[in-house]
Structures are given as structure tokens and as C-alpha cells.
């Protein structure tokens, strides 16, 4: 009886040991007698207890602590995470092509795509990736000047990703991207750069102020120009209207004089007189009126020839009496 119970418990225990549940986005590498046997997928998997054993993956790497200190982490886990992982590497000093010591730290995003290679091709995957990233970063930055380093983060990230992805391919790892977090030149260079940026901002401010003043002056000049044009156009129209009015007045006056001359000529023609002498006499008298209007004019001397003109007025007087 006890033997049967023992055997039943043993069977249940072996069955439980032979069942392995793998979660989604995880995998396990199984060895049989110390040799690679198979890779388990997510879900329920069956292995031979005590013969098949999961191979744990070793993780030893450095990370930045909450106070900025460097912390070494070591752990072993039989379950291999297939999700994208991120490493925040400690800051390191690199030398640019123009011999400036710069402090740089980077983030690396990678993913295990072949668990067998990650276990058997490299002893410690995270540490190898960390050292490779630091070495590659020094090489890439060493080919660039400080100014180029500060302004070409995307180029540096792209170069690092390409080099690291090729180098880690044999480890079953895919490097998705690399991001530089901080690029810190020495303090004296940062101070000089800050002064330069401040001077550049002041220069741009002066340029903007000058451009604004220039624009305002241009607008004011254009406004004055338009005002002058409008004023000149108004004066032109006024002069045209005035000239048209004067011309119309002269035309009407000329018509009236012509009508008067016609009537006088017809009247004088009945007396067989000379209408020209009459008209000249009228103009002469009008001129005399204008001459005697002056305040300093006391005496007006008439030429002898004027008597002939004035004598013609007598005939006109008789003509008017007859009419």
C-alpha cells in the first residue's frame, strides 16, 4: 500500500518536473547531458526530468544608480527575455579629433533574437555589449571635432547602431537604436560656448531690431510717397477742373461778346457807321476806367489821336436815341 502511494507520488512529481510553462515573449534553452537539445517556445512544454536541464543565462553589467553612482549587477536566469531591453551605460570620457576630453553617456536598445547564440557564443552578453559600445563610441567620437560632435547626434547614433548591430549579430542580438544622452565638454569650453551663444543672440537681436527699424522707415516712406501722389493727383484734378471752368467761362464770355458785337454791328450798319471804331472806343473807355481807379492817379493825359476815337461815340449816341 505504501509502495503504491510512493510510486503515485513519484509519478506525479516526475510529471510536474517534466512540464514547463513558458510565458509570452520568453524562451528557455534545454540541454540534455550538457549538450544543447532544444529551445522552448511560449506555452506548455514537456521535457525529460533529471535528464533535460534549462541552461541559465548570466547577466553581469554596470548601471547608473539613483545618485549617479555606478552599480555592478550580476544575476542568472534560466528564462531568456525576448523583449527589447535598454542599457543605460555609465558616463565615460572620450577624446575628440581636436583633442577635447568630453564626457558622454549613451542608451542602447537591443533585443535577443537567437537565444542559442546568446548563450553559447559569448560568456556574458550584457558586459560584452557594454564594452563594445564604449569602444565603438570612443572610435566614432575620435573621428569628429567637438563642434561636429555637438551638432551631429543623429549621425553618431546611426553610426553606432550600424557598427554595433553588425558586431553583435554573431551573438544572436539585434541592436535597434543607440541614443546619446549627454555630451559634456570641459567647463572652460562650456563657458566659452555660452559666451559665444550669448554674443550670437545679442547679434541676432540687433539685426532684428535694425530690420524692424528699416521696415518701419520703408513703410513710412511709402506712406509719405502715397500721400504725395494722392495730393498731387488731387491738385492735378483741381487744376484740370479749374482750367475747364475758366475755359468754359471764357467761351461763354466770348460768345456773349460775339453776340454783342453782332448786335452792335447790325445797329451801326443801319446808320452806315463803322462798328470797328465803336468797339475800339468802348475798349478805350474801359481802359481809362481802370487807369483812374488807382489812388495815386490824379490826372490822365490823352493822346491827340484819342479824340478821333472818342468822337465816334457821338454817332453812337445819336444811334441810341433813334432806337
From TrEMBL:
> Where does this one sit in the cell?
Membrane
Q: PROSITE patterns from the entry?
A: BAND_7
Primary place of residence? membrane
- Name the SMART domains for this protein: PHB (SM00244)
Q: Where is the Band domain?
A: 17-197
**Pfam families from the xrefs?**
Band_7
Would you tell me the Gene Ontology cellular component terms?
plasma membrane; side of membrane
Describe its membrane topology: Single-pass membrane protein
InterPro entries linked = Band7/mec-2_domain, Band_7, Band_7/SPFH_dom_sf, Band_7/stomatin-like_CS
| Transmembrane region(s) | none
Family membership noted in the UniProt record = Belongs to the band 7/mec-2 family.
PANTHER family registered for this protein in UniProt = STOMATIN-LIKE PROTEIN 2, MITOCHONDRIAL (PTHR43327:SF10)
Q: What is this protein called?
A: Protein QmcA
Q: Which organism is it from?
A: Schleiferia thermophila
Amino acid at each position: 500500500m505504501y509502495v503504491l502511494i510512493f510510486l503515485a507520488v513519484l509519478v506525479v512529481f516526475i510529471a510536474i518536473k517534466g512540464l514547463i510553462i513558458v510565458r509570452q515573449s520568453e524562451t528557455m534553452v534545454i540541454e540534455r547531458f550538457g549538450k544543447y537539445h532544444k529551445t522552448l517556445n511560449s506555452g506548455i512544454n514537456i521535457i525529460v526530468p533529471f535528464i533535460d536541464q534549462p541552461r541559465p543565462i548570466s547577466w553581469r553589467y554596470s548601471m547608473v544608480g539613483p545618485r549617479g553612482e555606478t552599480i555592478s549587477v550580476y544575476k542568472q536566469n534560466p528564462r531568456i527575455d525576448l523583449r527589447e531591453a535598454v542599457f543605460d551605460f555609465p558616463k565615460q570620457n572620450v577624446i575628440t579629433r581636436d583633442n577635447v576630453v568630453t564626457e558622454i553617456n549613451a542608451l542602447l536598445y537591443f533585443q535577443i533574437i537567437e537565444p542559442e547564440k546568446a548563450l553559447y557564443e559569448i560568456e556574458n552578453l550584457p558586459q560584452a555589449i557594454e564594452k563594445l559600445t564604449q569602444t565603438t563610441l570612443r572610435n566614432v567620437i575620435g573621428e569628429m571635432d567637438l563642434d561636429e560632435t555637438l551638432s551631429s547626434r543623429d549621425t553618431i547614433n546611426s553610426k553606432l547602431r550600424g557598427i554595433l548591430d553588425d558586431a553583435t549579430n554573431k551573438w544572436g542580438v539585434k541592436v535597434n537604436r543607440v541614443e546619446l544622452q549627454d555630451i559634456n565638454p570641459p567647463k572652460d569650453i562650456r563657458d566659452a560656448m555660452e559666451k559665444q551663444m550669448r554674443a550670437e543672440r545679442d547679434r541676432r537681436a540687433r539685426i532684428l531690431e535694425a530690420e524692424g527699424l528699416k521696415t518701419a522707415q520703408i513703410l513710412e516712406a511709402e506712406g509719405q510717397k502715397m500721400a504725395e501722389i494722392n495730393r498731387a493727383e488731387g491738385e492735378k484734378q483741381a487744376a484740370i477742373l479749374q482750367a475747364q471752368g475758366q475755359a468754359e467761362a471764357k467761351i461763354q464770355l466770348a460768345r456773349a461778346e460775339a453776340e454783342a458785337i453782332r448786335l452792335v454791328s447790325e445797329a451801326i450798319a443801319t446808320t452806315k457807321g463803322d462798328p470797328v471804331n465803336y468797339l475800339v472806343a468802348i475798349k478805350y473807355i474801359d481802359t481809362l476806367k481802370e487807369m483812374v481807379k488807382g489812388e495815386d492817379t490824379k490826372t490822365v493825359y490823352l493822346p491827340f489821336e484819342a479824340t478821333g476815337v472818342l468822337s465816334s461815340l457821338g454817332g453812337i449816341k445819336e444811334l441810341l436815341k433813334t432806337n
